[in-house]
Amino acid sequence: MIDETHDPALPCWVPEAAGHPDFPIQNLPLGIFSPPGGTPRGGVAIGGYILDLGACHAAGLLDGLAEAAIDLTLDALLTQGVAARRALRSAVSRLLSGPSQPALLHRATECSVHLPMSVGDYTDFYAGIHHATNVGRLLRADVPLTPNYKWMPLGYHGRASTVRPSGAPLRRPNGQRKRATDAEPSFGPSRNLDYELELGIWIGTGHATDAPMPIGEAASHIAGFCLLNDWSARDIQGWEYQPLGPFLGKSFFTTISPWIVTPEALAPFRAAQPTRPTDDPQPLPYLWDEADQAGGALGLTLEIWIRTAAMRAAGMPPHRLARSSALDLYWTPAQLVAHHASNGCNLRSGDLLGSGTISSATQGSEGSLLELTRGGREPFALAGGESRRFLEDGDEVTLTGHAVRDGFATIGFGPCVGTVLSAA
Asked: Are 333 and 366 in the same domain?
């Protein structure tokens, strides 16, 4: 639903909010932050500041709608569902476009950010068809996609305890790895550390029954979206993944952008799911909804940036590695949610789903170094004379995402940043 909160001419008294590339008043993403010397509480990113929802509630503002956001997580707020989110969004929009109240703000650079919800379970899908095709060609040149790929969303259950907010550094993982020329495996730091550009999907209202979730209801269970970096140790993964799939090569770290961009904020940027080739199978009825196909996809531009230790020391800006579009996901977010629950699996508030790596069809859109360097065989040249097969210690990887449409204010997710530390 597009309403007055999306008006590109909507005024805002917060400095730097007008024209902010990520957080203008038309966005109003939700998160958990700590002000200097304070405890974690709910907030709204606005320009270069954070609106303190706890302070708003204490001052009797927002019609009591922020009471559920004064906790250490947003679980209590977002489990209330669509109506509560819309009401809070409207109230915050009126507050920020009304008389100035700077005492309610904290400068974002002076605050710490935390996970916005309690991540009870984390599932990673494989819905980026161009990524799946690129990787499949490296492994099976004749048949890059497995026969089941176009019939259902594929995924695996990840490790919820190692999901971290943007800015948290990751330690290079140790594990078993075996080169093709090695007689036997060895144990040590991953040699082929990689990133993966994904969209994170937060579950707000849970689905606790053992009945399937109708596809037409799936979108109402989504509280919002974030950026997600599914860090991958390719050498560890390559040695362990058969016959049961990802394990230690994936479970060591997952970085997310800390602000939940709500479905309401993204309403102007909804898009039709791209038409499938005529020889692709029609999704089974439990995955098919006409309304979802007409407007369940997201028109988001996503980018990957790298800044090495040498680049930082020289004062050089980050180097862009790729740009892709969320419209290149083969399945919509609602289809991922509906499939997840189709066997009776319960979804709970705070569950996090990864879309799978998002690559587009053109060169320069690859969502991972595995694709970009063709499995490490073709190193990628960086500004300043460096090159990369895979990530090295000190590399800082940043994911960004923006929604752009004529006639509406551009909104974004804020950066999703992680820096590689040497192995323990």
From this structure: yes
End position of a domain, from candidates 49, 82, 114: 114
The arithmetic mean of pLDDT across residues 202-214, rounded, is 88
The beta strand positions in 174-265, using DSSP E, are 174-177, 186-189, 193-194, 197-203, 222-229, 232-233, 254-256
Same-domain pairing of 273 and 350: yes
DSSP 3-state percent helix, strand, coil across the chain (nearest 5): 25, 25, 50
Question: For the segment 71-92, what is each residue's pLDDT rounded down to a tens digit?
Answer: 999 999 999 999 999 999 999 9
Question: Are the beta carbons of 30 and 225 closer than 8 angstroms?
Answer: no
- Go through the chain and tell me how many residues it has: 424
Q: Looking at the structure, do residues 62 and 195 belong to the same domain, yes or no? A: no
Q: Are residues 136 and 100 part of one domain?
A: no
User: Which pair of structure tokens corresponds to residue 194?
Assistant: 């990689």
Which of 114, 140, 175 terminates a domain? The answer is 114
Evaluated on CA atoms 362, 365, 367, 371, the torsion sign reads positive
Rounded distance, CA 171 to CA 418, Å? 10
Q: Are residues 355 and 397 in the same domain?
A: yes
Angle value at C-alpha 151, between 148 and 157, nearest 5 degrees: 70
Do 89 and 151 fall within a single domain?
no
Mean model confidence pLDDT for the chain: 97
Q: Which residue has the tokens 């709910």?
A: 42
User: Rounded to an integer, what distance in angstroms lies between the CA atom of residue 246 and that of residue 350?
Assistant: 22
Cβ-based neighbours of 42, under 8 Å, separated by 6 or more = 30, 31, 32, 53, 54, 66, 69, 70, 71, 74, 77
287 & 304 share domain: yes
Cα–Cα distance, 10 to 25 (Å, whole number): 7
Q: pLDDT tens digits, residue range 285-329?
A: 999 999 999 999 999 999 999 999 999 999 999 999 999 999 999
What count of other Cβ atoms lies within 10 Å of the Cβ of residue 39? 9
Query: pLDDT at position 295, please?
Result: 98
Number of domains in the chain: 2
User: What range does the domain containing 43 cover?
Assistant: 4-114
Catalytically active residues are 131
Which strand (E) or helix (H) includes residue 216?
Answer: helix 215-218
- 32 close to 12: Cβ distance less than 8 angstroms: no
The domain that contains 105 carries what CATH number?
A: 2.30.30.230
Give the CA count within 13 Å in the CB-facing half-sphere of 197. 36
Q: Tell me, yes or no, if the pTM score tops 0.90.
A: yes
